[in-house]
Amino acid sequence: MLRTLVTVLALASAVMGAQKPKTKEPRVKITVDHKPDDCPVRSRQNDMLAMHYIGKFKDGSVFDNSYDRNMPLEFTLGTGMVIKGWDEGLKDMCVGEKRTLFIPYQMAYGEGGFAGRIPPKADLTFEVELVDVIGRRDPKQYEYKDDPKHDEL
């Protein structure tokens, strides 16, 4: 009986030791560069936002800049319209607030990169400014996004 117990414990220990250690999920690192004194509205899930941004690689070189186009990007927060790092890093912002987001590649364009402009596994930095919270959108508006029966998106 004792021998069986020792064998079971040895097997359990071997199985536990063979399991891969849990790795921490990558997270966005947020630095608040400027926060207005008055903040009547904060960004939240399903808000339509207008954002100015400067996107940079790890070496500091710029790959995109909305200020150069004089046109902020408009999108709905938390719906997958932008990279995961933005959906996480832009929550709870005030209009006029500026942040720097340090986004690991897993929350940016992943292992494949993007359209030859963003290399695979590229960690990115974005200097962002919330220009406006345009309004809330109905989350049901996006429910067919991954449904093959609805190909309009």
TrEMBL record:
GO cellular component terms, semicolon-separated: endoplasmic reticulum
Keyword Signal recorded: yes
- Superkingdom assignment: Eukaryota
* A Pfam family: FKBP_C
The record's InterPro entries line, in alphabetical order, gives: FKBP2/11 (IPR044609), PPIase_dom_sf (IPR046357), PPIase_FKBP_dom (IPR001179)
- Ranges for domain PPIase FKBP-type come to 46-134
Print the keywords alphabetically.
Answer: Isomerase, Rotamase, Signal
Q: Has UniProt tagged this entry with the keyword Signal?
A: yes
Q: Which Gene3D superfamilies match?
A: 3.10.50.40
Q: Which residues form the signal peptide?
A: 1-17
Catalyzed reactions per annotation:
[protein]-peptidylproline (omega=180) = [protein]-peptidylproline (omega=0)
Checking PROSITE patterns in the record gives:
FKBP_PPIASE
Under the GO molecular function aspect, what terms does this record hold? peptidyl-prolyl cis-trans isomerase activity
EC numbers listed for it are 5.2.1.8
Read off the PANTHER family from this record.
Answer: PEPTIDYLPROLYL ISOMERASE
Q: What is this protein called?
A: peptidylprolyl isomerase
Q: From what organism does this protein derive?
A: Trichosporon asahii var. asahii (strain ATCC 90039 / CBS 2479 / JCM 2466 / KCTC 7840 / NBRC 103889/ NCYC 2677 / UAMH 7654)
